[in-house]
Amino acid sequence: MKHASLAVLVIGVAAAAVPLGAQSLLYRPPNLGGTWVPDGGVVQFNFLHRFYVFPGPSHFVENHPTFTLVAGFGHNIALGGRFATKSIAGTGGGAQSSNETELYARWRAHGAEGRPGLAVAVTPAYNLLAKSVDGELGVDWTQGPFTLHGAARAVSRRLGERGTGAAAFAGGVDVRMTQYIGFGADLGSFVSPAGRAAWSAAINFLIPGSPHTFSLQVSNATSATIQGASIGYATVGTGHVLYGFEFTIPLHLKRFGPWFHRSPKPAPVGAAAGGGGPVAAEIRMATYKFQTDTVVISTGGTVRWTNDDPVEHTITFDGTEPGSPPISRNGTFAHRFDRPGTYTYHCTPHPFMKGVVVVK
Ligand SMILES: [Cu+2]
Fold it and tell me: Distance from the CA of 351 to the center of ligand 1, in angstroms?
């Protein structure tokens, strides 16, 4: 039983470590857009919040959030926007507002962020505050725990500046200590005038059992747009450091299906639902737990699970045994075990729910 629990735990954690096709901050330093494109049908919401604490006696806190909302359309194409409510533009000469909006498209021409090897993405954009046509060519290269990043950027009108276009370059690196924890850092600047480079450093986490990643960071950049990530709040070396965090939230649109369909009738599912013989063991699912975490039955016996929770659960075996589809409230799943053995299983949406069926 103890060994079985450990096996379930290891398998559950390994499954949980995959961020479900979502953007992972373990593969992207804070001020680089990366080459990531959401899968079709996935909408990603990233919340970046940075703040600056003015020196005493006021200790006034100035907040610099950037919200990113981007949707995947398949074919390695994404459309999205960023909204930064306290962009550095507000401090620049001639800027009308500090609300910076950038609309962008991204096409990943090669590779995939997070996979070994090279990935390349092109990101055309329009910055509504600067009234500027912007663009970025992003490249990253992953090998083992390392990812190296490079970006070449061009803008037709710089934020808060009069005059013509400019080019910027940025580079960064990620190092992953484990699949859950990594470090990232980057540096980027407009070619001219130099001296207001944007930099950042971060410690990044994948939150186990979830598709979310989280980073704690320091930087001197006030927004995450192509323009904002290319210029620092103040000259490098003035000690003007912003602290912040970013949180990534992938929304798999399929999961919202139940909003638009009548909830399915709870029904018995599984091969043994009908004439599977007498039920050798009953297991209830309640409060996100298999109420009996280990059952022992004889070969040929049937186990029946019943869901008492308002959310869907699954019976997903860690081996090759076929498991259940999502089981809605009051639904049941029955399965007959024809071979002796130890069958460990978990719930796919809630990998921390684990159980064992021992067949003698
Ligand atoms: Cu569950």
Answer: 7
Q: Taking residues 208-224, what's their average pLDDT? A: 88
Quick one: 20 exposed, middle or buried, by C-beta within 10 A (0-12, 13-18, 19+)? middle
Give the separation between CA 257 and CA 200, rounded to whole angstroms: 39
- CB-based contact 167:190 (threshold 8 Å): yes
pLDDT digits (tens, 9 = 90+) for 78-123: 999 999 988 875 455 555 678 899 999 999 999 887 788 999 999 9
Q: Flag whether pLDDT at 5 surpasses 70.
A: no
Ligand 1 centroid to residue 312 C-alpha, Å: 6
- CA of 291 from ligand 1 middle (Å) equals 12
CB 326, CB 350: distance < 8 Å? no
pLDDT confidence of residue 130: 86
Distance from the CA of 314 to the center of ligand 1, in angstroms?
6
Model pLDDT, residue 154:
95
CA 276 / ligand 1 centre spacing (Å): 24
Tell me the whole-structure pTM to 2 decimals: 0.69
The 10s digit of each residue's pLDDT in 261-317 is: 655 555 555 544 444 567 889 999 988 899 988 999 999 999 999 998 878 888 999
CA of 330 to the centre of ligand 1 (A): 13
**Nearest by Cα to 229 from 97, 62, 108, 87:** 87
Element (H, E) at 297: strand 294-297
From CA 360, how far away is CA 350, in angstroms rounded? 28
Distance in Å, CA 288 to ligand 1 centroid: 6
Residues with CB under 5 A from ligand 1 (ion): 313, 347, 349-350, 353
Distance 342 CA to ligand 1 centre (A): 21
Q: How far is it, in rounded angstroms, from Cα 127 to Cα 189? A: 18
